[in-house]
Design a protein that fits this description.
Blueprint (H helix, E strand, L loop, with lengths): L1 E6 L3 E6 L2 H10 L9 H24 L8 E5 L6 H14 L12 E4 L1 H11 L12 E7 L3 E11 L1 H4 L3 H4 L5 E12 L3 H19 L6 H13 L1 H5 L7 H5 L8 H11 L4 H9 L2 H21 L9 E8 L6 H13 L10 E2 L4 H5 L3 H13 L32 E7 L3 E13 L5 E14 L3 H15 L19 H25 L6 H4 L3 E4 L7 E4 L1 H25 L9 E8 L4 H5 L1 H14 L5 E4 L1 H6 L26 E5 L1
Parallel strand pairs: 3-4, 3-17, 5-8, 8-9, 10-15, 15-16
Antiparallel strand pairs: 1-2, 1-17, 5-6, 6-7, 10-11, 11-12, 13-14
Helix pairs in contact: 1-2, 7-8, 13-14, 17-18, 17-20, 20-22
Length: 650
């Protein structure tokens, strides 16, 4: 099965059953052309034509960017690039997906273990923490084999050529296979079928009954098909009741014969009898032996940092297949091998695992964004503007070409971050000017500042000793209210009245003068205005507003510092724009800017910080832009074509 996912702004999909075609090509292509039969030549030609048609379908989706995309071919579990890579490259070359002048990395191959491990890295629910140079084990199981793969996490080899610092980090870890063992299970179903038929035959002979061999054979097939259902039911449940063959599927005589054979068996006893088989025991011995061999080789001391850190179980079964999986786990437990966290991850529909293959190219694009100037395509997508970045830019240009800047748009309940890269482009008169493209956008939820300030001030009063405080109201509360009811009622009254007070205060330009800052104002905490708290504007600012604004500054600084967001980019400028109608943010923007700078210094980040569009546009050190300096704001004018990839998964 090949799934071709075209990655544009959205993900689209095509599903075509062609694995047999590929296997046929891989079988015939190594044969020299002068030794191929006419039939073999026709088969090869039809496969190449199929790939050409597939490319045509993808071109219809977006013809303009196909030639600039990278193609990722997801290899099946048993395939390796060393074995099939050259033949697959030849197929893509013949079909016109790549040409002889393309870089080798235009078509790359993703092994199963690589994309499965990448999937585990981005799936936070698996509980595995991957570290550089640590060893791990994958236990893979399907209908025909069990595969044990021991691997070591290392920095991707591509990083070594780019940056020693990145190569020594956990920025892009990929698995290096240390050992790989496979146990053939192709005969497993036949062994189990024969065992079931043998069980029924012996039981009939013991009971002196005569049931046709054809009936026993058909019943064995039915039981084999329902084996996982049998395993999932109560152990003591009668086998005949679990299967419960309806009359409309079989004749009355056949149903009667089936029930006679199944009579006396419960699920637990029947499963145990199946497992009491030398051939099955021999298969499980091979599995346990391979498992022990790898553990002894790579994890001699339990819980050693040099040993295997985690073991992941996965299966490629349609349906639960409890019998197959439980059989293996029981065999390992019987051999006194710990199988903690042995829940199987089912990958039969491994769309997410296949998409994990895109993580490596994506990380490399991040590196390219951070280190290299982009190639700017002309409108007809045919030529490149040459040598744009060599322009001698003034040192006092605060936002230079090939640099990054972040915009933080603050709304009432979220901050919208936009990471842009500055690029140099040619204008009509060949002057070199600046433009932008957007690398990443991220929304971070925040608490409403006014609500946060109200909560902080309420908690401040709650923490005081009300018994000794002149504003005490808890001891005077109505006896008909419980403490909890009283607290909730007073909290909401206090919050509503404080919001009104803040609005009135900050609309008065004189309120922040020294004479007004320390004037007491009462805030009612009760509908009847019976109880009140005294507060000054200075108290509100120092106790509540500054910490609330600091929370926003912390979110902004942390976003720029986090390696999961913008921390890997050398951000030269931060533009903070308040889109909220929140009177607090608009009134105290200087506090936000000052606090943000302090938080950035803690993270050793020192970008130029602009607060508001007015402050940005007033700066005369922004350089020459294609349109005007307003172009700095919002998303970029250019699209990043190189982030588009095609993924082919078999």
């Amino acid at each position: 099965m090949i799934n071709c996912y075209v990655i544009f702004d959205k993900v689209g999909g095509y599903t075509i059953s062609v694995k047999d075609k590929l296997l046929e090509f891989l079988k015939l292509h190594p044969i020299r052309e002068n030794q191929q039969t006419n039939d073999e030549k026709i088969k090869l030609s039809s496969i190449v034509n199929f790939m050409k048609e597939l490319k045509y379908e993808l071109l219809k989706a977006n013809v303009s960017i196909f030639d600039k995309t990278q193609i990722i071919f997801c290899l099946p579990v048993e395939w390796t690039e060393d074995k099939y890579g050259n033949d697959l490259r030849a197929l893509f070359l013949k079909a016109g997906w790549v040409n002889g002048e393309d870089h080798k990395n235009r078509l790359i191959f993703s092994t199963f273990i690589e994309r499965f491990v990448l999937y585990l890295q981005i799936n936070k629910n698996n509980g595995i923490k991957f570290e550089r140079e640590r060893k791990y084990l994958v236990f893979y199981m399907d209908n025909t084999s069990i595969r044990l793969t021991c691997y070591q996490m290392q920095s991707a080899k591509e990083l070594i050529a780019v940056s020693k610092k990145l190569a020594l980090s956990d920025f892009l870890l990929t698995p290096t296979i240390l050992d790989d063992e496979s146990i053939d299970l192709s005969s497993f179903n036949k062994i189990v079928h024969n065992k079931i038929e043998k069980i029924f035959t012996i039981r009939q002979n013991t009971n002196n009954r005569t049931v046709k061999n054809s009936v026993l054979r058909r019943l064995a097939e039915e039981v084999l098909r329902n084996l996982n259902y049998i395993c999932s039911n109560m152990h003591s449940a009668p086998l005949a009741t679990i299967l419960d063959y309806p009359n409309f599927l079989y004749s009355d005589e056949m149903v009667k014969e089936y029930m006679e054979v199944l009579e006396g068996w419960d699920c637990d006893t029947f499963i145990k009898e199946i497992l009491n088989d030398k051939d099955i025991e021999q298969l499980m011995y091979k599995v346990v032996d391979a498992y022990k061999r790898i553990l002894c080789k790579y994890s001699q001391v339990e819980n050693s940092p040099d040993g295997i850190q985690a073991i992941t179980f996965c299966d490629d079964f349609y349906g639960l297949r409890l019998f197959n999986k439980d059989l293996v786990l029981v065999a390992l437990l019987d051999a006194k091998i710990s199988v903690a966290n042995s829940k199987f991850i089912n990958i039969v529909d491994d769309t997410m695992i296949s998409r994990a293959a895109l993580q490596k190219p994506y990380k490399m694009i991040q590196i390219a964004n951070a280190l290299l100037p982009p190639d700017i395509l002309s409108k007809d997508n045919l030529s490149l503007y040459p040598n744009l970045i060599e322009h001698d830019w003034r040192e006092n240009d605060l936002i230079q070409p090939n640099s990054f800047y972040v915009q933080a748009y603050i709304y009432e309940n979220c901050i919208n971050f936009i990471l842009n890269k500055v690029i140099a482009v040619s204008s009509i008169d060949n002057a070199v000017q600046k433009s932008t493209f957007t690398i990443q956008e991220k929304n971070i939820n925040i608490e409403n500042i006014i609500n946060t300030a109200c909560d902080i001030l309420w908690n401040h009063f709650q923490s005081l000793d009300f018994e000794d405080h002149s504003n005490s109201f808890s001891r005077n509360c109505c006896y008909e209210h419980s403490d909890g009811e009283f607290d909730v009622e007073n909290y909401f009254n206090f919050k509503a009245n404080l919001k009104i007070l803040m609005s009135n205060w900050f609309q008065d330009e004189n309120m922040l003068s020294n004479q007004m800052l320390d004037i007491n104002q009462s805030i009612s905490t009760n509908i009847n205005s019976k109880f009140a708290l005294n507060i000054t504007c200075r108290m509100l600012i120092e106790v509540a507003l500054k910490p609330a604004i600091t929370n926003v500054a912390t979110v902004i600084a942390s976003t720029l510092a986090s390696n999961d967001l913008f921390g890997l980019y050398d951000v030269s400028a931060l533009i903070i724009i308040c889109e909220s109608k929140d009177i607090v943010l608009n009134k105290f923007n200087s506090i936000l800017k000052e606090t943000t700078l302090k938080r950035l210094q803690i993270h050793q980040k020192r970008p130029v910080v602009f607060h508001g569009k007015k402050e940005l546009l007033a700066c005369n050190l922004l350089g020459n832009w294609v349109n005007n300096v307003n172009q700095i704001l919002g998303t970029g004018s250019y699209l990043q074509v190189s982030s588009t990839s095609y993924m082919v998964k078999t």
